[in-house]
Every structure is written in structure tokens, then in C-alpha cells.
Design goal:
This protein is an alpha+beta fold. The protein has helices spanning 2-22, 36-49, 51-70, 78-96, 101-107, 115-122, 164-167, 304-316, 352-356, 375-382, and strands at 126-136, 142-153, 159-162, 172-176, 182-191, 196-200, 223-228, 237-252, 255-262, 274-276, 282-289, 299-303, 328-334, 340-347, 363-367, 370-371, 390-397, 400-407. The chain has 10 helices and 18 strands. The strands form 3 sheets. Strands 1-2-3-6-5-4 form a 6-stranded antiparallel β-barrel. It is globular.
């Protein structure tokens, strides 16, 4: 194992030296930087030139994985897969470092980006988000539910912004990069009433990131683009549209939000992704779309100025304690009389709800004496508690009401 690791290290070092030699003369001159056609040609040249080196790296990775298969006693520890991620990062740097974000913006500061240029700039910072939620069903069996969404990197040290509803009651969150790299994410902060959440991923290298634009300066008719993970299957897809309206007041899951309206195509899985102007700046966070027969081109995004204020507060005032959780997965239901209730669809293993005897299929009637008819109302009650506190619930099970005290996690 040590010999192979040494061999791998030597190949990485050799690879890095070779890359530097290949691209020494490929930075843009000031004259070139004024011509967007030349910029695009330079990007194509870099991508063509890297193919041979990329093939070498992929061969190294494959040899490494083959070695692991042949040596079953070798543990697949984090070091091994971190090494593979570093190799992927080298490919990524070759493709993008020779033409930096600053050079591209400087070259195009007198005009708007083409959609191709916008994608080159924004795609490396646009991510797919995979969420895993574990619990137990009514038979006591362990269950795992998978869901997906979108997000974008907002700082070089790996902070990622997305929608709160993308995370749900996540047990594990993974951020997937456009080039195949993946990172386990830590949930830093959540704001359910604003439908925003902040994640953190870590790497030895800095990340490409997107900058916020000024959503107050938007005008109806401006061209915008969304990059996201529609249906959780088509990561890093870009769609193009326009700002259709400003200051739309919508109520989503009981929360009143002021949103931008766009005809940019968005689908399930796009939530949390960036809505980008023709300067490559984020002017909105994709949040919702209208669906139904005959409904087309009705997407909505949180304005960037609203998102920026939340993020700024989070990064400058880190919460001392995490938000309390009951330890259940919930959904809303409507009974035959048209009344809405919160239904427990899963119980997280090892959580306070499981310890208190809550079961899948239970219906929450009240929390701390407050009648609960939506997930938002439940979150509002929880906002007055801290982890370790005891929350009194009244639930309905098989037509019988039960009082249960849950120690919050």
C-alpha cells in the first residue's frame, strides 16, 4: 500500500509539473481580453489541450481503484477518496484557472455576457444537492428516503446556499460538483420562514463561487438564466428566460414571501439554485414554480438582496446552538372535512420522537398547546425551544388522542 501511495504521489507531482509547462503561455493578453470571440477560442483551446492529461489522470484513478479491488484487506479510508478528489480538482483547475473570473469580467465589463460565457463562469460554482433522510416505518424497519435539489457556492472557502425545504429533515447532505467531485456537507444555519439554508464543504483548495447582484436594480424584461439539477437527475442544466414581474406576494406552506417571477424553465430539483443576470451575478434563489394544467413559465425566486442579508447575518453571527428537532419526518394532509393536519411519515432512529413512542402515521394535533395545521406552524412553535428542552405534543393515533412529551434533539 505504501509503495502504491508513493507511486501515486509521484504521478500527481509529475502531472502537476507537466500541466504547468503546457499552459505557461496561454493566459490572455490585454488585447485579447477585449474580444469575447478570442476568449471563447482560448477556453476551447485549454479544454482541447487538457484532454491528454485528463486521460492520464483518469487512468491513475482507475489503476488505484483496481488496486483496491485486488487488495481487499486495504481499508477504503477517507485519505484514499480525498486523493481521488484532489486529482479531479487538478483537471478542474486546468480547465478554468488559465482564464480567471477576474479576467473574464474585466474583458466584458463594457457589455453583457453571452449565455455561453455566463455558463463558463457560473457552472463551476453551481452544485447539485443530494439529501438522505433515515428513519423507521410503522413496522420498526429502518427506512432511507432520498431527495435532491440545487445550490451554489458563495465563498472561496466552501459556503453553499440553498433552500431550506431542500434539506427537510436531512440525516446526510452531499454536495455534488459539475466535474464529478462530491463533498459531505455540514448544515451551518437554516431559516425556514425565509426558505434559506447555509451549508459548508471543505477542500484543500479554494472553490469557485458566485457573487450577489443587486436585485433592487432589476427591471422586467431583463434576460436571466438558471443553473440547477432538474428532477434530481440532470445536474448543471442551464435554462434561459426573463424577469417576468417583481414583488410577487406568495404564500408557500404558510409562509408569506415576496418573490421575483421568471419565465425561465424550472422544475422539481431546481430549488435552491441560482437565478443569474447577464453579468454573471446571482439576482435570485430559485424557490418555487406554479404547476397545473395549462400553467407554463411561472417560476419564482427569492431576491438576492433578501438572501444576502440573511447570509451576511449568518456568517457574522454564527448560532451557538443548532435548531431543535423532534426527530420525525412530516408532511401535510387534508381530512374529509377539509381540515389540514401534520402527518408523521417517518421516525428518525435514535431521536427524541422514537424514545417518546411516536409512530409513523401519527397526526400532530397540538404542540405546546398550539393547534398545528401546517409544517410552518410547527416550526414556529419549535423556534421557542432549544435542544434538550421538552415539547408537549397531542397526537391522534387510530382515532385516539394521546399526550406525549418529547425531548428535543
Amino acid at each position: 500500500m505504501k509503495k502504491f501511495a508513493l507511486f501515486l504521489l509521484l504521478l500527481i507531482c509529475t502531472f502537476g509539473v507537466g500541466v504547468g509547462g503546457v499552459f505557461v503561455g496561454m493566459r490572455l493578453s490585454e488585447a485579447q481580453a477585449t474580444d469575447s470571440a478570442i476568449i471563447v477560442d482560448e477556453i476551447a483551446a485549454i479544454q482541447d489541450a487538457v484532454v491528454a492529461q485528463e486521460t492520464i489522470v483518469q487512468g491513475i484513478v482507475q489503476d488505484f481503484l483496481t488496486f483496491l479491488e485486488a487488495e481487499p484487506e486495504v481499508e477504503e479510508d477517507d485519505y484514499i477518496f480525498e486523493t481521488i478528489n484532489v486529482l479531479h480538482e487538478e483537471i478542474y483547475r486546468m480547465r478554468h484557472d488559465m482564464i480567471t473570473r477576474e479576467e473574464m469580467f474585466a474583458a466584458l465589463e463594457t457589455r453583457s455576457l453571452t449565455m455561453t460565457e455566463l455558463f463558463v463562469l457560473a457552472n463551476p460554482a453551481s452544485v447539485a444537492i443530494s439529501v438522505e433522510t433515515r428513519g423507521t416505518n410503522m413496522f420498526g424497519q429502518q427506512t432511507t428516503r432520498a431527495s435532491a435539489g440545487s445550490g451554489f457556492i458563495i465563498s472561496p472557502d466552501g459556503y453553499v446556499l440553498t433552500n431550506d425545504h431542500v434539506l427537510g429533515n436531512a440525516s446526510q447532505v452531499t454536495v455534488l460538483m459539475y466535474d464529478g467531485r462530491s463533498y459531505r456537507a455540514e448544515i451551518i444555519a437554516r431559516k425556514p420562514e425565509g426558505d434559506l439554508a447555509l451549508l459548508k464543504i471543505n477542500s484543500p483548495n479554494e472553490f469557485y463561487y458566485l457573487q450577489f447582484g443587486d436585485s433592487d436594480e432589476l427591471m422586467v424584461g431583463e434576460q436571466v438564466a438558471a443553473i440547477g439539477n432538474p428532477l434530481g437527475e440532470f445536474a448543471n442544466s442551464m435554462t434561459i428566460g426573463h424577469v417576468s414581474a417583481l414583488d410577487r406576494e406568495l404564500t408557500i406552506d404558510g409562509v408569506r414571501l415576496t418573490l421575483l417571477q421568471t419565465d425561465t424553465a424550472v422544475n422539481r430539483g431546481n430549488s435552491g439554485g441560482p437565478l443569474i443576470n447577464d453579468r454573471g451575478q446571482v439576482i435570485g434563489v430559485i424557490t418555487a414554480k406554479s404547476t397545473g394544467d395549462g400553467v407554463e413559465g411561472l417560476g419564482f425566486a427569492l431576491p438576492s438582496n433578501v438572501a444576502y442579508e440573511v447570509v451576511y447575518a449568518w456568517l457574522n453571527t454564527v448560532p451557538e446552538t443548532p435548531a431543535p428537532v423532534i426527530g420525525v419526518n412530516v408532511d401535510t394532509m387534508t381530512d374529509s372535512f377539509g381540515r389540514r393536519w401534520v402527518l408523521i411519515v417517518g421516525v428518525n432512529e435514535g431521536g427524541g420522537a422514537q424514545a417518546a413512542g411516536i409512530e409513523e402515521g401519527d397526526i400532530i394535533i397540538t404542540a405546546s398547546g398550539v393547534i398545528i395545521s401546517s409544517i410552518t406552524e410547527l416550526r414556529e412553535v419549535l423556534s421557542n425551544y432549544a435542544p434538550g428542552d421538552t415539547l408537549g405534543l397531542v397526537i391522534s393515533r387510530d382515532g385516539e388522542q394521546l399526550s406525549i412529551d418529547v425531548v428535543l434533539g
